[in-house]
């Protein structure tokens, strides 16, 4: 199992809208792609004074599923067009083998 972990940040004023977008649009649309080996997503949120951090964790059976999701540059963030205006900064995605 591979965990794809991505960190992105919003302004506090945009956090609720981004969370709703992830919950109601982005995560369901990823599931609807029926990517072989996709095993679901989780969302973690940490509020700070001047920004809100979003951590997404997507699980795949193998890197083949990750590549089908993200393309040949697997670490490149996959940002939906509706989300672009809400994200103030982001990191590359990282991939981990789930050991336990």
Instruction: Kindly name the structural category.
Output: alpha+beta
Residue share in helix: 25-40%
Number of β-strand runs: 5
Describe the oligomeric state of these chains in a short phrase: single chain
What's the SSE pattern? EHEEHHEE
- Helix segment tally: 3
Averaged pLDDT: 96
Shape: globular
Largest sheet: 5 strands, antiparallel
> Which runs of at least 5 residues are low in confidence (pLDDT < 50)?
none
How far is the first residue's CA from the last residue's CA? 10 Å
DSSP strand content: 35-45%
Q: Can you characterise this structure?
A:
By secondary structure, the chain is an alpha+beta fold. Helix content is 33%, strand content 36%. It is built from three helices and five strands; from the N terminus they run βαββααββ. Strands 1, 2, 3, 4 and 5 form a five-stranded antiparallel β-sheet that branches. The radius of gyration is 13 Å and the shape is globular.
Give the topology, please.
Layout: E1 2-10, H1 12-32, E2 38-47, E3 52-60, H2 63-70, H3 81-84, E4 87-90, E5 94-97
Antiparallel strand pairs: 1-3, 1-4, 1-5, 2-3
Features:
alpha+beta, five-stranded antiparallel sheet, globular
Task: Quickly describe the structure.
With 100 residues, the chain is of the alpha+beta class. The chain contains three helices and five strands, in the order βαββααββ.
């Amino acid at each position: 199992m591979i965990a794809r972990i991505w960190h992105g940040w919003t302004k506090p004023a945009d956090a609720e809208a981004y969370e709703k977008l992830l919950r109601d649009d982005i995560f369901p649309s990823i599931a609807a792609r029926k990517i072989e080996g996709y095993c679901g997503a989780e969302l973690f949120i940490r509020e700070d004074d001047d920004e809100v951090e979003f951590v997404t964790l997507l699980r795949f059976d193998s890197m083949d599923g990750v590549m089908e999701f993200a393309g040949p540059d697997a670490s490149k963030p996959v940002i939906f067009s509706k989300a672009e205006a809400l994200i103030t900064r982001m990191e590359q995605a990282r991939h981990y083998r789930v050991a336990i």
